[in-house]
Amino acid sequence: MFPSNHVAATVIVYGFLAFLLARRVGMLAGVLVAAASTIVVIVVALAGVYFGRYWLSDAIGGAALAYAWVALVALTAMWRHPQAPPPRTFMPAVVLAVTLFSVGVQLGVDPPAPPASAPRAAPVLVTQSEWTLSLWKRLPCYRSDMGGDRKEPLTLQWVSDLDSIRGQLRAQGWVEGTDVSAHSLLSLASPDVAAVSLPVLPKLNNGVPSSLVFMRPGDTRAERDVLRFWPSGYAVANGNTATPLWVGALAHERLSRPTWPINILRVDRQAAAFDARGKPGAGSGAAILAKVDCHGVPVSLLASPVE
Known about the structure:
nine-stranded mixed beta sheet; 307 residues; elongated
């Protein structure tokens, strides 16, 4: 949500704290205090963007409004009390010690395990006919983020193991998503970068991270397709074996050039349909068992050939 309340609250807390400390220490220590508070805000904002809690524009908007409020209150306080308070050179060290102690206490407390880190239950076994006739209706039509908001549609339900999916996607020209690294992060500010060079940010579905992420170039350098898969909690029985059932989302992302020097990829709602057929000479692709309608979302039911 624009602006980000989370980032705004962080700026207000650490901004006021930096203001109070900077007035009670020397110039050099004040610069260090301001730099430390800024680093904390940047780390919190980037963490939220990284885990998909909000967009970069939401973080920038929340930080800008909060910094304006902190500046207004700080200027008012200095106008009403222009005389600097007595120096307290030990205060930054005390605040740092208290902050580190509180962080240590929180890390030492065992909170209830979130759904993403809790031990996963064994998948529920179903037959192929049960899946194609009724089970697909009970699976979600859209991906849900951490806030429960509905995101891009889940247009694929694929019965296969991950190695088979990797092999078939690679045969069709897909490559595994770029990991977040120093090089990929620097590409976020590059003036002439291809969309496939940017990192593929992780996305959660009901708190569960995607198990597999692939991408391929689009029609231009500023476009790319991203395909993500999450476990459905079901498996299709085939004799004495059971094959996992995955739900997938295909997103067509377009590079938003007007936002440079920060390159942002935005999801194009008009994503192309996924082609499950293999390329000539690259082996057989997945079989499309059915194409169904999930509350207006076209969903393809796929099954990889049994080896």
